[in-house]
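Q: Predict the assembly, please.
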Amino acid sequence: MSAQPVPPQDSAAHDVAAASAPERNVVTEAPAGEVVLKITDLCVRFPSDEGPVNAVQDLTYEARLGRTLAIVGESGSGKSVSSMAVLGLHNPKRSTITGSILLDGNEIVGADESLLRRLRSNTAAMIFQDPLSALHPFYKVGSQIAEAYLAHNSVSKDIAAKRAVEMLELVGIPNPARRAKQYPHEFSGGMRQRAMIALGLVNNPKLLIADEPTTALDVTVQAQILDLVKDLQREFGSAVILITHDLGVVAEVSDDILVMYAGRAVERGLAKEVLARPQHPYTHALLQSLPSASEDSDQLQTIKGSPPSLVHLPSGCSFHPRCMVKDRVPGDPCATLLPELRVSSPGRQIRCHLTNPESVLDQEVVS
Amino acid sequence: MLIYIARRALMAVSVLLVVLVATFLLFFAGPSDPAQAMCGELRCTPQRLEDIRRSLGTDRPVAEQFTEYFKGLAVGREIYVSGAPRTCSAPCLGFSFRTGIEVKEALATRFPNTAMLALMTMAIFLTVGISTGVLAARRRGTALDRGVVGFSQVFGSIPSYILGLLFALYTTVLYPILPRYANRSDGLGPWFVGLIAPAIILGLIYATGYVRYARASMVDTLNQDYVRTARSKGISEQKVVYRHALRAALSPVVTILGLDMAGLLSGTLVTEHIFGVDGIGKFAIESLRNDDLPIIMGTVLIGCVLVVVMNLIVDIAYSFLDPRVRLS
Amino acid sequence: MTANPGSASAPLLEVEHLVKYFAVREVQGLTMVRNTVKAVDDVTFTLAQGETLGLVGESGCGKSTVSRCLTRLETPTSGAIRYKGRDIATLPEKQLRPLRREIQMIFQDPYSSLNPRQTVGAILSTPLRVHGLAKGKEKARSQELLELVGLNPEHINRYPSEFSGGQRQRIGIARALAVEPKLIIADEPVSALDVSVQAQVMNLLSRLRSELGLSFIFIAHDLGVIRHFCDRVAVMYLGKIVELGNKQHIYGTPQHPYTQALLSAAPDINVVRGIPPKERIRLVGDPPSPISPPSGCRFRTRCWKAQEICATQEPPLEDKPGGGDDDVPGTGDEHVIACHFPEIKSTLVAEVTR
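A: Predicted assembly structure:
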């Protein structure tokens, strides 16, 4: 993998930083590029005192260059666990992983440490939710970025340090040379997340996994960071996996969406289409339950109950105890039979027994 | 940074002042008469008691004693010993009641023995304790981890005088594989090797604590987000563990190290006694037995000063370890 | 939704020129300086009986400090907090006690705000005992409370760890309601909850509000949640209210640039459904430190309209003529803005036509 320093001039980050006036947002459909990541039948299990925790089950998806895939779910849905498996970050002694994770042609499941080390940061990098705890408090920001560069490039420390400053500039941090010599606690929340992104992109990876990158940030800063991620993706052409619980964030930046519930994928498709016309009852209910800032609402639609324990998953479809339309499925299979993830319409897959989800769910809004 | 150190030093000085006052009050303003205690019950004559009182200064009002005492510490003073005045230079800790030697000098000749023992002990418990603790933390939950934790708990809860006695018995008496303690005047080489036996057993006893501190601290930092970030950079596991996790794990250990060192430097009573090391601890026990008040007071004062000084050093060390401390 | 309380009744709560400074020490260069964090700086608002006022803003805007002052978890530096006409801002603890019963707080984190070693029954009966309520019938009352918040009354002997996050928040709500309060200060009550559970808790709060005739100060950073739950909204920035009005004002005809930026930045469900807003505003940088807030208008460093006057003169929070909204001053229904160059923008949120 080449690791050419990116020329700092005409970087998109500068446009973001300079854009203070109102601007129009144009969402353009990203072309479907080469598959960087292909996950097939991934299962991740952790032992616990109560029994095995089925964190991820039968997960299949792919990420393509130039596209952003959003993995959406609540806490315990398996969205973070599955993406940490991509970098082989689960301790093999404390987890059981089966299935296949092909990262740029390399099998990650069962891979040895030296292969994982070569791929981490270089082929796939990860940025985390809370940049304050994700950056080491004792080391200067610049040296933390340089360390990742040095791990994959045989260059001098000076060159790596320069590269770190370039990266900080690229992500729109003013005074990058001075900032590189500061510690994480001297950065503001937004600047810290920018530094984290700089760290993620320092080796020009083909895949960037962003795990709740804006959850710890204020909304006005969140918007900046999302714009930055979008702009950098356009520039680098990498694949981005965005892990989030916030459907608003998905709508802002994603091309594709994968909705997870209790460790399994329940709906997959183009983000725009899924959000406009969800087909899985869970996705539908989630969208219905969000209060809006653009219209008044009297009573919010709710999903009864709470997400299930991953140790004692419900029989059949994991969502059935909370599902509001399970009575509409003929033959009542929901409590006994786990539905397969199947193609429900072109470009869309759902894990649901409903044969005509859209019409059933449309009636649900009215009732 | 300089300001931080200066501030900490200033705080240390003020704590020291409080300590000085407290020790003084402890010995001279208490309900019991120190002169009576020193005089002993059997051979005490009124003449002797008077002499002791005069030498200690307890025949004068407390306020006056107090100023004398501090004057002695600050610029030196004259003290009556057996009826004759003797000059005691600053910082004056008085004269041994038994031998007439100046307390300061008596402590100064013994301190190197205690200090060398403390340093050797530290070298042992830090290397053994931290490396074992890190190993256990990395293999958390395995048989090795459980074994290490269990052994350190059992070994650490055996009283040190038993372990010390057994160790001394087996290594220097029954099977003399380790040399016995020799005075510095017998040459630095024999002196040094003579300290190995007490240092080993003391080091191992202390190591049991450090195994557990280091393990707990390491388990905590290995779960931190920044360790996950470090791992996701593709650097070697060695670097992840030592450069990222261990450095952060060490800062809580440093605090305990400071206090332990203060304790070791002010003399280990039992171990020094068992191995015959002529250090502060053994000296303190002897003077206790002899009711040699000026020396007891001197050793107590040294202990307190060491705690304050070690705390200052810990604070400064902390500011080098953790950049966040420099600002607060 | 609750009925508009109107202006006839005297306000339940009047907050006037509320100020809360915190002293901090920090090292600057080679010297140690004592600084003050101006967490809340001259905040004024009223709350009518049965009304809900939302406080919205980013972290560090002072909204949580306001709530802590209202419940007197903090003593204000200056200013008045009049509850039913009585100033509680500096009231000593003893005289405050009976009023504490009437003003209760619901916290953000349902995990850390409940004592894990107490059963639900103990958690609920403690406030009853402290205030001498339901004497001898604490258990029955606790079960009643559990039922009120939609939990099984038989679970009274369980510990908080046996409940899910949403259920724990219900326990927190039950605890606040135990002493029959009049005013609830809710500090981000749903933001720590899973998305699928948020709506349940929101609906529960709405139901309790109308059933028990509660008044609310509701703090949140989610503009959708605020719009759903509140009658009036105060937008805060760096310790000051920059815009205050009923929700039609704030969401329909926002005039302060910060309100507009906030509305524009917040991902909205209708944008999610594919109805994009006509216009978008992106702010630069993070909010400045409340230790040394900018001179004049505090928002000017991030404002695209800022001119010289903004740096020299602090804009007062006042009604802006020509705003286009038919607000009548003094009715408790006014729309006030602290900006030198206010301008209505109603194109920032998705236009919903249904």
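Chain B has a mean pLDDT of 86. The domain at 107-327 of chain B is CATH 1.10.3720.10 (MetI-like fold).
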